[in-house]
Structure formats: C-alpha cells, structure tokens
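Minutes, project check-in
Item: structure for the 291-residue chain
Input as provided by the requester:
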Amino acid sequence: MEKKQKKRVDKPREEKNKPEERRTRLPKHTGERNLRVEARQERTAELPEDVVVGRNAVTELLKSGRGVNKLMIAEGDHLGSVREIMALARERGIIVETVSRQKIEGIAFGHRHQGVLAYAAPVPYAELEDILEKVKDKEAPFLVLLDELEDPHNLGAILRTADAAGVDGVLIPKRRSCPLSATVAKTSAGAVEYVPVARIGNVVQTLKQLKEAGFWAAAADMDGTPYDEADLTVPLVLVIGGEGHGVARLTRENCDFILSLPMAGHINSLNASVAGAVLMYEVLRQRRKKK
C-alpha cells in the first residue's frame, strides 16, 4: 500500500516591513508609587479661603498684618521656626491653641501643614483705641458690641445693617464669639470692608472703658424700656446678645439701661441680627429727627 503523504502547510511569512510590537514593562514599584500618588490626590481637597497651612505661609501671614483669628500648633512641635511663629502671634494678641496633629490634618484636607495652621480674617481687625480716636470729635458716636454671638450669618447681617445705619465700629470678644471669616464677609455683602471690627478681651472691662470715655451702654433684652421711648441720641454702645441665651448677666448689670422690643405674637424673641437691625435703625431715626 502506498503511504499517504502529509500535506505540508506553510506558515504565513511575516511581513518584513511590519513594525514589531513592543511591550514596555514597568517596574512593580512604579505602579505602586502611582497608586499612592493618586490616593493622595483624592485625599487632598481645596483649602477653605480662611485657612492657611505650613510654617512659611503662616509666618508670612503673621508678618503681613492681615487679620488672624486663631493659630493652631500640633502637640510636640514647639521648637525651631514654630517658636518664632508663636512669638509673632503673641505679639499681635492672637489666640494660640495646642492641638493634636490629627485635628490639623482633618482641617488641612491633605495639604502639607508641618504642624501649623491659621485661620485668617478676610480683612484686618481694627484696634478699639483707633476707633475711639477716630470718633473723639463726633457729637454722638455709635458702637455695637456683640456679646458671644456665634453664628457667622448673623454677624454678617449685623455688619451689613451697621454700615447702612452709620455705626462707627463693631466690637466682638476674642473668645466664645464668631470671628470674621469668608462666610461673614459674603453675608455682609461687602460691608466688612467698611465697618471697623475690633476684637476685645473682657466684655465688662470694655464697657467700663467705654463709659469712662463718655459712652452710654444699652443692652437689647426683655423687660426693659421700650426701644422707641429711650433717648438714643447720646454717645452709645449698643450690646446685642448671642443666639439662645441673649446678653450675659454680668454684661447686663454693667449697662446703663435695657432696651426691649414689643412682641405681639406667639414667639417671645427675635433673631439677633433682626433685633439688632431694628435697634440700629431706631438710633438712626432719632438722630436724623434731632437734626
């Protein structure tokens, strides 16, 4: 029997001119590094407008004279350039808090902070002495003191009304009170650029200082003189209390008189910024009428 010959199948020849495909192999550690970078980028968010982090950035902020509400230093980071930063802050009377590094990291949103974070004000704070010097020749200067007001929207609204009503300055305590911030600036509709805002220490001591300078102190509270029956044409510091608790007892006791608003409905109080607006415009009304 004849053997069957197997057919020979020729493999197709590769085209000589066809470019040879190449595979580039990345080292294993390169891929891991890229994943770490991507993860870090996902964790890093944009900082709020009033937050400044990093030793150099905070140092320049303090030297610039811009308003600073508070400085945070991580526990254990009190040497080297941090010591200089703390000294600059204390020279300007800025609150310095020592906090855990985790707290700063939570605020810094992944940005390199070096254990230092500052809350900056949108505009520089004024000094109480400068405000008093500016109004010393006025017949009846008008100041507003906010006693532990904590809502930035209320503060912004009060600044907006203060500008419209011709208030010469607004005073806010350094502690337990809302500072100037981006939210305050936005709510004020630009009034923060025109109304001087000074940070004060003890409210009672400040009232005593103002009364020695010739001011009368009036607190907005219940069970007082009806606001439209009091003489508000004198040099005046109007005290507006915080949300919920109103004017503190010691503050009230150191005021010359209490102003109250009539309430004809079921709610026995008004929002702080609304009450403040009514009283500021009553001051303006009386003074315009007197002229």
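Outcome recorded: The chain has two domains: 47-120, 128-290.
No further action items on this chain.
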